[in-house]
Amino acid sequence: MNENEHKLFGESRRGFLKKASLGFGSIALSGILGQTGAWGGSLGDPGLGGILNGTHFPAKAKRVIYLFQSGGPSQIETFDYKPSLAKWHGKEIPPSVQGTQRNSGMVADQSTFPLVKSIYDFKQYGQSGAWVSDLFPYTAQVVDELCIVKSMITDAINHEPAVMFMQTGSQLSGRPSIGSWLSYGLGSDNENLPNFVVLLSKSSGSQPLNSNAWSNGFLPSHHQGIQFRSGKDPVLYLNNPHGVHDHDRRRALDHIKKLNERQYDLWEDPEIQSKISQYEMAYKMQNSVPDAVDTSNEPDYIYELYGEDARIPGTYASNCLQARRLAERDVKFIQLYHMGWDQHGSLPAGIKRQALSTDQATAGLIQDLKQRGLLEDTLVVWGGEFGRTSFSQGRLTADNYGRDHHPGCFTMWMAGAGVKKGMVYGETDEFSYNVARNPVHVHDFQATLLHLLGVDHEKLTFKHQGRRFRLTDVHGQVVKDLLA
Question: For position 37, what pLDDT does the model report?
Fold first, then answer.
């Protein structure tokens, strides 16, 4: 027997014993578990195609639209109204307060730390009476749909680790993102579109964004977020090459699938199954993607709702409209990234530009989802990776200042499926420097998001390098006060 024959014989023998033992174990396990899942609880909705084969309990949300404001929007200029800062404006932050939080290296050589009030006014809106900055007049009009969390805290102080932490539960690159975990756990409600779609605003800021934020990490590669581009080719290399007929492409894919299946029978490498899934999804997307991203038939009142920027592919407004169209088609997780919120200096002008490019479209998305009945089972999330300091970074003048990174407190909001409407949760101290009441850690937020989708965050795991990993690592509690 030569070396190749010996290897094949060994693989076949081991494969048979492995499959046989797993089969007997499955029979025994099914008898023990009966109608409950292997995770200890009765499963909810069956047959979604994910590893869970259902939800741990009935889901409030079917899908998520996550509006990630990359760079760290200042909570003091957006939703965390601090009138007491007017009394302290220009005065040094008390050492007893400053010493409670670490600062980034960007203010290491700064000798003075004057507190600075927001240059923008705040007003109360809606029945909830939530305070909203003048920068966000459109968001203010939908404030009673929002569940505003003013007491977010994170462990990271620099951009990339903080973005990774918010999106993957770890400051280190290489872990699966939220969308990938949901794709792995729950599968898809639309077999012709990806489970997890990523949309990036073009020309929205110089702050870099690492694609690991929507990576599948150690999960099978078909759970990777698929980035849709602006322009005529939303997904590269999706169309058939010139001269290749669709019938010929189908025959080629069928033959490749048979070859891959033979390889899988031999080696049982799960990545081979991922390749088969990716080829099939690419073929289906040839017809489904052009229809999903074509907004040419949208009526004028929709563009008036989102703003005229929605007519320009790749803008934040256009991506918000695309997100609604993908939500209509039951894409599970739709991730928007809008960069440019990193105002270390010239904050008043910089944050005004950001608000002008996002405010109307954000509110328009909420209104559009609501009028279509989609807000009832769609969870919308808005927020960045951390907040900003209440003291000025750099020189404070009569009309200009900056703010450094601040992990100790920041604001996010949610709207839609399963969360309380018109709620303001948590509170910061008079300086917006520390959380004073009801802290919500990043892992708590992630646990709550999964809960709204019917998933127990402690039971959606993946064994990698000898350890069972999960999105929330070994932390996280569902914030039940936020649940409707």
Answer: 36
